[in-house]
Design goal:
Bound molecules: zinc ion
Distance between the termini: 39 Å
Structural class: alpha+beta
Largest sheet: 8 strands, mixed
Number of helices: 16
Strand order of the largest sheet: 1-5-6-11-10-9-7-8
Helix content: 25-40%
Radius of gyration: 28 Å
Shape: elongated
Length: 421
């Protein structure tokens, strides 16, 4: 496509989405590879759910008063008249899959991970996309706070491998259905007293779900929220004990943390543990990953009474602070002269590829000088020279582009040489 054509309206990527091109995508692949190997060391397995689900799933799961559901969902009616939503997060899909396939009856650990795009109709801004990407992990059926500590440690293990430094871990408990109502009432009372200072959004939240006021980024709201009562003072015996065990677990694993009683997370379903790992140097949107426990979600879906815990990591944000070196590519460029050599080149390329060497053949007839110019431009590590003489003798020329040294021999010998370097 010419530049003119792509600049025409309608042919550019939709606002809030973007292409991840070669040159950048290698970092994504590295992150995905490290996430996969790290999570599998902890007994996690991949679970891939569809990109879209019935809207009801997120209304029920994510919570009808959360910002995600009230303002940010990509919802549309399909040709069958069903209300469909592009997933804004992953957890409800996993809960649905467990219920649908009765994975809880299989006896395997319910530890799942996934990586992929999520969708929120949010205001696009720097570092924020409407199609964004998450690494998501879920554990179902483990009540013990030790598993919350374990997944926080797992997150750190991954961030270490990604070269992310200067992080801080925030933890809190948001209580349970037994103790949160009393806290909600105290919060509602406190919010009512300072209602005039709150933004329009938070004035509404003060009545529907005052906990959400803590998510607001407006200065006046943050200031008012700082004077609100702390949930830590309202936890029931069970929640207090659970939170104590989480902190014990983090101590055992030597993960430094700070208890932040304002950390309530933006979704309705959290119970007990919530946590975030934040990075310096990312501004206001500094959370690299966040998660917590959702012990009632499965039950609320009409499924078995199975507790859950997990986190979601923003891939874009983590890559912005990760120190990942691009992998070194060693391309073998095949320079052929003449039709016979071109044909033979196909088979030669196949031989090298089958033995693990990245081999590039371009089918544009060139002179030897032009071939070398092209190989230089592509930063090829090696050039294999194939002409009529070489075909007759079965010995080919191989040039090491970095040193300029040239070798000559049958293809097996040249392969051994390439693999040795
Ligand atoms: Zn409680
Ligand atoms: Zn506000």
């Amino acid at each position: 496509m010419t530049e003119d054509a792509s600049a025409k309206k309608g042919l550019a990527a939709i606002k809030g989405t973007r292409d991840i091109l070669p040159g950048e995508v290698e970092k994504w692949q590295a992150l995905e590879g490290l996430a996969r190997t790290t999570f599998e060391l902890y007994g996690f397995r991949e679970l891939r759910a569809p990109v879209f689900e019935a809207t009801e799933l997120f209304e029920k799961g994510t919570g009808s008063t959360s910002d995600v559901v009230t303002k940010e969902m990509y919802t549309f009616t399909d040709k069958g008249g069903r209300s469909i939503t592009l997933r804004p997060e992953y957890t409800p899909s996993v809960a649905r899959a467990i219920i649908e396939h009765r994975l809880d009856l299989e006896g395997a650990p319910m530890r799942y991970y996934y990586m992929g795009p999520m969708f929120r109709y949010d205001k696009p801004q720097k570092g924020r996309y409407r199609q964004f990407h998450q690494v998501d992990i879920e554990v179902f059926g483990e009540k013990d706070a030790a598993v919350d500590a374990e997944i926080i440690e797992m997150a750190h293990a991954l961030l270490d491998k990604l070269g992310v430094t200067g992080t801080e871990t925030l933890v809190n408990s948001v209580g349970c259905r037994a103790c949160r109502p009393a806290y909600g009432a105290a919060l509602r009372e406190a919010a009512a007293k300072r209602k005039d200072e709150l933004c329009a959004d938070c004035q509404r939240k003060a009545e529907t779900n005052p906990l959400r006021i803590f998510d607001c980024k407006v200065d006046a709201c943050r200031e008012a929220a700082a004077s609100f009562p702390s949930i830590q003072d309202y936890l029931c015996e069970e929640c207090r004990e659970h939170f104590g065990k989480l902190l014990d677990g983090l101590d055992v694993l030597k993960i430094p943390y700070r208890v932040d009683p304002r950390l309530v997370r933006g979704l309705d379903y959290y119970t007990k543990t919530t946590f975030e790992i934040v990075a310096s140097g990312l501004g206001a949107q500094n959370a690299l990953l966040g998660g917590g426990r959702y012990d009632d979600m499965m039950k609320d879906f009409g499924g078995p009474d199975i507790c859950g815990t997990g986190f979601a990591m923003g891939i874009e944000r983590v890559l912005a602070v990760a120190a990942l070196a691009p992998p070194e590519r060693k391309i073998l460029y095949l320079a052929y002269l003449g039709d016979k050599a071109k044909k033979a080149g196909l088979e030669l390329a196949r031989f090298f590829r089958a033995n693990g060497v990245e081999c590039l053949v371009e089918y544009k007839d060139r002179g030897m000088k032009a071939h070398f110019g092209r190989a230089n431009k592509l930063q090829a590590a090696w050039v294999l020279i194939v002409g009529d003489n070489e075909l007759r003798s079965g010995r080919f020329g191989l040039k090491d582009m970095a040193s300029g040294r040239q070798f000559d021999g049958p293809r097996e010998d040249l392969l051994a040489l390439i693999l040795k370097r």
